[in-house]
Specification:
The protein is mainly α and about 160 residues long. About 50% of the residues lie in helices and about 5% in strands. The protein has seven helices and two strands. The chain has helices at about 15-20, 20-25, 55-85, 85-90, 95-115, 125, 145-155; strands at about 35, 45-50. The protein has a two-stranded parallel ribbon with strand order 1-2. The protein is globular and about 50 Å long.
């Protein structure tokens, strides 16, 4: 849906998200759903993160569900990189060619999914690479509105 190839080298996911159009569209109310992010993202009304200090069974169910859902996305990225090995090992050389290559790989992968190609073959072999535990990254203080919305979501859907 949205791919950002603006920076050379390693850039934290939260910075990329902070500066992408998808975030702007969520903030403008273009979508009614929610996104899931790891603990490296701030909790907002449209982007939910895992809870750090679980105190209720509902919170535990929320975190388990959150982690399982995010792992599906992480596996998808892993499979994408396996399909296009240049993404797995990194690209060197002209930055503009690298950007176009990354976007082309994303387009081709999405086309394969749309055409129902077997993009998930071999997934069972690679699934062990991805833990069911959250990746702990630096903590960013969550917003109050995000916490309130997440709390309402948990109380509504995880009773």
């Amino acid at each position: 849906m949205d791919i950002v190839t603006r920076w050379r080298g390693s850039v934290h996911d939260s910075r990329i998200f902070r500066e992408c159009r998808l975030k702007q569209r969520f903030e403008a109310g273009a979508f009614s759903g929610i996104l899931l992010g790891d603990i490296g993202y701030p909790c907002t009304p449209y982007l939910f993160t895992p809870l750090l200090n679980l105190t209720t069974p509902q919170e535990e169910r929320y975190n388990r569900s959150h982690i399982r859902t995010r792992n599906t996305v992480e596996r998808c990225f892993g499979l994408w990189k396996q399909w296009f090995r240049c993404l797995l090992r990194g690209m060197f050389g002209d930055i503009e060619i690298a950007k176009k290559t990354i976007v082309a790989c994303a387009v081709l992968y999405n086309m394969a999914i749309d055409m129902r190609e077997d993009v998930f073959s071999g997934e069972r072999d690679s699934i062990e690479q991805y833990s069911s535990e959250p990746i702990v990254q630096r903590y960013i203080a969550p917003s109050i509105r995000g916490n309130i919305r997440r709390r309402q979501f948990i109380e509504t859907h995880f009773q």
